[in-house]
């Protein structure tokens, strides 16, 4: 019994130390969360304030600045050595959240302060994947700053696939192609970017992908090609396009 009490006390002590912080640090979290620029500045002028303090979900003041799109607080925190690469409980960083929100200026500032562009969250998704439907400027900025354009998450999906699945923005897909994306990558089920475009009946996109090197006869894990799936969906117009480019059943 005595041993159990000691273990319990140690566990409580460890948990308390993990989630405890000073009043100044608590105030900093609140000020960043409420977008109170003046308070953030004043708190940072005090001694021994941990700018990287985290709440019980692992969220930092820097992340709150991103959520609020407050570039002034963001810069204050970064100038006071905020760590750009801290991950919260879901594995997300400030940069990943900025990409999710599609805020170019905030993304650019985080990159200036050496944010790791290729950190992945708990699902192995990258900042580029979250930015896949944002803008051509953001995609270009991330790629030119070292983002892996062919990275795959736990589903095997790439940023290109996410763009096709969510918006199929031709301009952005053109950017991916110009950056040298591997069009023929397949996810864990064997689906390629071309297959997703064909399933969703994006005819112009299908032609563009094929003309830029997409393998029209790739098969997924169920031995199906883009043509097979088009015919199964009774999408005969899509089937005609695929056959024109040499698709086989």
Provide a concise account of the structure shown.
The protein is mostly helical. The protein is built from 15 helices and no strands.
Low-confidence stretches: 5-18
Quaternary state of the chains: single chain
Q: How far apart, in Å, are the first and last alpha carbons?
A: 70 Å
- Strand tally is 0
Query: In angstroms, what is the radius of gyration?
Result: 23 Å
- Estimated helix fraction: 40-55%
Give the CA-based shape.
elongated
Please state the average pLDDT score. 93
- Give the SSE string: HHHHHHHHHHHHHHH
Write the layout of secondary structure elements.
Layout (H helix, E strand, L loop, with lengths): L1 H18 L3 H11 L3 H8 L16 H7 L3 H9 L14 H8 L2 H9 L14 H4 L5 H9 L14 H8 L3 H9 L14 H7 L3 H9 L14 H7 L3 H9 L5
Helix pairs in contact: 2-3, 2-4, 3-5, 4-5, 4-6, 5-7, 6-7, 12-13, 12-14, 14-15
Structure description:
The structure is a single chain. By secondary structure, this protein is mainly α. It has helices at residues 2-19, 23-33, 37-44, 61-67, 71-79, 94-101, 104-112, 127-130, 136-144, 159-166, 170-178, 193-199, 203-211, 226-232, 236-244. Helix 4 packs antiparallel against helix 5, helix 5 (71-79) packs parallel to helix 7 and helix 6 (94-101) runs antiparallel to helix 7. The N and C termini lie far apart (70 Å).
């Amino acid at each position: 019994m005595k041993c159990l009490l000691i273990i319990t006390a140690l566990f409580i002590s460890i948990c308390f130390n993990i989630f405890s912080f000073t009043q100044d640090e608590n105030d900093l979290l609140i000020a960043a969360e409420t977008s109170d620029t003046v308070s953030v500045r004043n708190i940072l002028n005090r001694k021994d304030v941990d700018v990287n303090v985290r709440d019980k979900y692992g969220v930092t003041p820097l992340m709150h600045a991103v959520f609020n799109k407050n570039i002034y607080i963001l810069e204050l925190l970064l100038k006071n050595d905020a760590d750009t690469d801290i991950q919260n409980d879901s594995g997300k960083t400030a940069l990943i959240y900025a990409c999710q929100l599609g805020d170019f200026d905030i993304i650019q500032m985080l990159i200036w302060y050496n944010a790791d562009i290729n950190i992945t969250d708990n699902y192995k998704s990258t900042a580029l994947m979250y930015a896949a439907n944002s803008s051509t400027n953001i995609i270009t900025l991330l790629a030119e700053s070292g983002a892996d354009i062919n990275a795959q998450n736990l589903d095997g999906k790439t940023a290109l696939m996410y763009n096709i699945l969510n918006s199929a923005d031709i301009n952005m897909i053109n950017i991916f192609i110009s950056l040298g994306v591997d069009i023929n990558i397949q996810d864990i089920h064997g689906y390629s970017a071309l297959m997703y475009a064909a399933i969703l009946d994006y005819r112009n996109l299908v032609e563009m992908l094929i003309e830029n090197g997409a393998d029209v006869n790739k098969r997924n894990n169920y031995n199906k090609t883009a043509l097979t799936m088009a015919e199964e969906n009774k999408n005969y117009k899509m089937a005609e396009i695929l056959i024109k480019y040499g698709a086989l059943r």
